[in-house]
């Protein structure tokens, strides 16, 4: 017995030394992510019989592949499951959000590009009702990349998205905007219309790189274009409890951002790439999976925060 303890201790010492050499400087904590983020119970959302006005949330991080699109789809679907009316906006010329909801970008006659650039196109001309009740989509494809260039010469170029969303603000409870991985004019448009910015952060070594720049950009937009813009929250994604540095990154993120970090942590699972291929949210594809449960809990947190705000 003593031998095993010694062995375990020796192993822990080695692990700690290895982590020290990675220079992240945190002690190795528990593998359960909620040990880092848990603060208070998350209430069950009450049913709603009236809808709107919408809380607009921009899903933003100029770092690529951190889970912006996956979170937009699955948070959107989970909010809709709770009876909320949700509009998800594909604001990335890659069109990954549209594809992830089963819309083929090549078969798209009209997209958000036309809505932004052509005064004759209205939001109802491009709006798609997804298979999930209460979840609607404004689709995008590669055409949107031209808007970034064409908008530069327009009056109020940062307000183009705000202008086109205005007619439907009263119809939805939540509007989620899936930003492209850049801090260009499209992202600024999203930050200008948003009430809050949700920043998905991959639980990975370099995830914090670039976050300072993103926060600076949010500050600038708040000073110049959108005085009430809030940091909605930081969402830790792709958490893998088997890797020690995932835990350390999460610990660091909580140290840096405190209660701005969602209590919900999205675990890493192959179900997400699979659901993209299937063109449906994980919440309908595999309702009992950990990923579906994660996003449902996130939806409860988002609803609770919004209800608190309204009660203030
Ligand atoms: N929790 C997760 N576990 C495993 N894989 C995930 C998870 N979340 C997202 N992925 C996968 O990681 C890849 C990147 O995710 P996603 O497209 O959501 O990121 P993104 O931030 O929108 O990327 P981009 O910056 O290119 O728009 C996708 O293949 C997705 O299926
Ligand atoms: Mg994306």
UniProtKB/TrEMBL annotation:
Transmembrane segments: none annotated. Gene3D superfamilies: P-loop containing nucleotide triphosphate hydrolases (3.40.50.300). Pfam families: AAA_31. Residues 55-230 form the AAA domain. It comes from the Bacteria. Residues 25-51 are annotated as: Disordered. PANTHER family: COBYRINIC ACID AC-DIAMIDE SYNTHASE (PTHR13696:SF99), P-LOOP CONTAINING NUCLEOSIDE TRIPHOSPHATE HYDROLASE (PTHR13696). May play a role in septum formation. Belongs to the ParA family. This is Chromosome partitioning protein ParA. The gene is parA.
């Amino acid at each position: 017995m003593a031998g095993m303890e010694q062995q375990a201790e020796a192993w822990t010492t080695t692990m700690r030394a290895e982590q020290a050499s990675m220079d992240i400087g945190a002690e190795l904590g528990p593998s359960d992510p909620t040990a880092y983020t848990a603060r208070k119970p998350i209430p069950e959302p009450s049913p709603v019989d009236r809808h709107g006005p919408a809380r607009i949330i921009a899903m933003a991080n100029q770092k690529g592949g951190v889970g912006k699109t996956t979170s937009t789809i699955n948070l959107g679907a989970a909010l809709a499951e709770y009876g909320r009316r949700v509009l998800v906006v594909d604001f990335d010329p890659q069109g990954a959000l549209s594809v992830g909801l089963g819309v083929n970008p090549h078969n798209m006659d009209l997209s958000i590009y036309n809505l932004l650039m052509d005064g004759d196109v209205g939001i109802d001309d491009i709006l798609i009702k997804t298979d999930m009740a209460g979840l609607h989509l404004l689709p995008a494809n590669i055409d949107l990349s031209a808007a970034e260039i064409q908008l530069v010469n327009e009056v109020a170029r940062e307000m183009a998205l705000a202008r086109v969303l205005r007619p439907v603000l009263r119809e939805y409870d939540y509007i989620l905007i899936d930003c492209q991985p850049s801090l260009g004019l499209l992202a600024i448009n999203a930050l200008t219309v948003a009430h809050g910015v949700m920043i998905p952060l991959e639980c990975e070594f370099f995830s914090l790189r670039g976050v300072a720049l993103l926060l600076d950009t949010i500050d600038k937009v708040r000073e110049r274009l959108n005085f009430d813009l809030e940091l909605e929250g930081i969402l830790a994604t792709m958490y893998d409890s088997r890797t020690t540095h995932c835990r350390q990154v999460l610990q660091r993120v909580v140290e840096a951002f405190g209660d701005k970090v969602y209590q919900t942590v999205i675990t890493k699972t192959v179900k997400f790439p699979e659901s993209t291929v299937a063109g449906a949210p994980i919440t309908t594809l595999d309702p009992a999976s950990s990923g579906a449960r994660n996003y449902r809990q996130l939806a409860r947190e988002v609803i609770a925060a919004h209800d608190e705000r309204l009660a203030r």
